[in-house]
Model the fold of this input.
Amino acid sequence: MLGYFLQTIEKEQMMPNLGGGELLIVAAVVMLLFGAKKLPEFARSLGKAKGEFRKGLDDDEKPDEPKPAEPDPKKV
Done:
C-alpha cells in the first residue's frame, strides 16, 4: 500500500515531456501575449541578465585583490 502511494506521488511531481507540437503551441501563445515587436527586446534583456549573472558568479570565484594605496591628497 505504501509503495503504491509513493509511486503515485513520484508520478505527480514529474514534469511532462514537451514535444515539437507542444513547443509550437507555447511559442504561438507567447507571440500572442507579447507581440512580435516585444519578443526581441525580451530576449535581449534575458541575455543581458544571464551575462550579468555569470559575471557575478565569476567575480565571486576570484579572490579579492588588495587595491594599491593611494596617496592622501591632503598630505601631498
Observations:
- The chain has three helices and no strands.
- Residues 35-61 form one domain.
- The mean pLDDT is 77.
- Residues 2 and 73 are 75 Å apart (CA to CA).
